[in-house]
Every structure is written in C-alpha cells, then in structure tokens.
Amino acid sequence: MALILHDAPQSTCSQRVRFVLNAKGLAFEERRLDLFAGDQLKPEYLALNPNGVVPTLVHDGAVVIDSSVIMEYLEEVFPQAPRLVPEDPVARATMRSLMRFADEVPAPAIRVPSYNLAFLPHFQAMSEEAFRAMAESKPLRREFLLSMGRTGFPEAEMTLALKKLGQTVVRMADAIERSGGPFLQGPAPTLADISVMPVIVRMDDIRLAHLWADRPAVGAWLAAIRAQPAFRPTYYPGSLLTEKYPHLREQLAAAC
Hints:
By secondary structure, the protein is an alpha+beta fold. It has helices at residues 12-23, 43-46, 67-77, 89-104, 106-109, 111-124, 128-136, 142-148, 155-179, 191-205, 216-226, 231-234, 241-244, 246-255, and strands spanning 3-7, 29-32, 56-59, 62-65. This is Glutathione S-transferase family protein.
C-alpha cells in the first residue's frame, strides 16, 4: 500500500485529509506544495489534479481529488477504527448534509478574511499584470481572486463572509444540542466534524472566536477536537496562518 498526499500546510482542505489519515493511523508520504510559487499549476501536478488545487491523494497509483471525496474514500477503503461515518443510514445522511453545508457555506466564507488578512500583502507586491496573469491561471479560483483584486475584498464582502461564519456557528451549536455532544453527532467525531474543523481552527487563529462567545458548546467542541490524537500531527508547526505569516500575528495582536 502506498499513500501519497500532495498538500499544503495551511490549506484548510489539506488539513481535513491529514486529520483522517492521522486518525486512521495510516502511513503516508506528504508532498508539500508551495502555493505562492505556483506548484499547484505546474504541468506535472495538473496532470494529477486538473483543478489546480490541493489536496490530491494518490493511492497505489490511483488518483483521488477533492477533500470531501478523499475523506469518504479513505473511510471506505480503510474501515478500521476509528470509524468516522455512522452505521445508521439516517445518521449517515445527516453527516453528509452537514458536510455539504461545510463545503458550501463556511469553507468559501473563511477564504475572504483569510485572504484579506494574510495573503493580500503578497498580492499587493505584484504588478497588476502579474496579478491578473496569476488569477487567470487558476481554474477554480479565478473569479474569487479577481473579485478581491490587489486592494482586498470590500467591507460588504467581509460582512457577508462573517455573517456566513456566524450562521455556521449557530448550525453547529444546534447540532451539538440535538446530539448531546461534544461533537456534532454525539460522543465521537465523524467526517462532518472534520469537514468544518479547519474553518473553526482558522477562525480561532485569526481572532474570530468571539463569534461563538455566546455558544459555549462550540468552544467545548473545539477543545474536544484539539484533544483528539490526530490533531497535533495534522496541525504540525507552520500549519496556522499566524505561524506562517508573522505580520498577521503582529497585526492581530495590535488589534486586541
């Protein structure tokens, strides 16, 4: 068995897959891509993943792309404990609906403050011509980057993104209350928890934890996720934005 994961340390989608691999105790070779250097757009990588994004899993030569798909693939192919998908079909359907929500609402929303806070200085240092060429080269991120531009997302975009992140917190708190917690579907984490995990960790990292100040169940959920054995090897040093970008850490500290 050979598992190769092409990913990036700070990529939220990569963090999902690393967590599943680590939770399952699976040995894998990690090939880290430098996204700012354009490793994900090189011909050899696009031959694996034509979307030009991370992560990509290669299992014994078979290529699997899209983080949600990869997570479900790993659970199907490696069903050993811990099981990350409920046995009950109704609970499994609930898990998948939570995963779809994570993909459609908080996953894209968290990119707006992330790019504005952490990545914008890099783009501002580029010429307009270089920036547009970079944006045009990204199959799935072109419109997103062009809407941001080299001046950042406008206040209205930030407000909408924060609203969606707030909706996510409410959705999580409601699910935890129904299940009894500490996780979304009860005492053990499922792929639904792992799907939303990188968003909540990112929110905490960039000082957005106040969004769950009146939802203590979400804070307890985060503590329970961090207590999982798979968390530390998933979030190795350099995986957080504030670890990668010192200017962001200083900026956030000054704002407190």
